[in-house]
Amino acid sequence: MPRNIYDDDHEALRSSAREFIDRVMRPRAEEMIRDKVIPRDIWQAAGKQGFFGFDIPEEYGGAGVDDYRFNAVVAEEWARFNMATSSCFGIHSDVCPAYIVDLGTEEQKQRWLPGIASGELIIAIAMTEPSGGSDLAALKTTAVRDGDSWTLNGSKTFITNGYQADLVIVAARTDASKGAKGITLFMVERGMDGFVNGRKLDKVGMDESDTAELFFDNVRVPDENRLGEEGLGFIAMMQRLPQERIGSGIANVAHAKAILEETIQYAKDRKAFGQSIGAFQHNKFLLAELVTTIEVAEAYIDDCVLAHSKHELTAIDAAKAKWWSSQVQNDVLDSCVQLHGGYGFMNEYRVARAWRDARVTKIWAGSNEIMKELIGRDLGF
Questions:
Q1: Can 244 be counted among the known catalytic residues?
Q2: Which of 56, 58, 306, 317 is least buried, going by the fewest C-beta atoms within 10 A?
């Protein structure tokens, strides 16, 4: 099925991203799995190539491109390589910069955006806490005003880029009496007294991602590091979650599509009972179903990308894209493992690692159950 949303400029960027992956990242794939991190020199190389600055204005070192399709085409290529790269680079370049561009002061933009665009400053966003995941309005991390500073206490967990992060957007409660309206965002910098980038978490998949815990023990954060107005942090997060969710949808489908393509080739090469395993009717029909499923999901995601590039994507449609793409991804990859037989259960095969990596996509960026709750409310229930 032909895709019609990308033009020659987008495809040129895709070719550049693929070349970068083949030249810089693929030769070090096993190193990243072993060390559970994407090395800083790769971040800087990606920044030098201009992959991190699409949403950042030119005066702050970015491309200043108001066309989300550029974000999307690169996100697809990261995901085709592996989901961990898509997650780490996506949080850094697709999720976090918009907060600073939209909410930051001129001084904050000049201070942080050039380093983010260049890959010199690795950024993370810290919403999730040990006591709760999708319930962002129930944050327990607190920030108390103290003169021209704030005293930050609490902890966060499951933070992508958390171990290496130089800069973290932290959501904290500044007024316990106001519920969701009592949450404020702060920029916490590596080296601040009391701020600890915790251990790399031992995950089922996403080995290359330096997911970590973060701890804040009486961290003094100057008011000049407050991002946006006091009490508007929850609204700011809700307004920007659709971009995170469509970004997740893009990656989910691209990741599953890449592994399915490899599985089709495997089904042609692998012989059993005198013929290719893909020639058996069950397998042939299954592969026909999987290809169709991916193309249908991709068509919906493409429509969402187009809508978002026009600033028309709704939070509900983004929720649909997020939950459906992650379900499709997991179903397709489970079948790909089955088609590989025993080899599909071996970590040395990409299909096995992809299957492990995909399981979290039904949980993060708002669990699929929360996505369905949002869609159900929109139906009037």
A1: yes
A2: 58
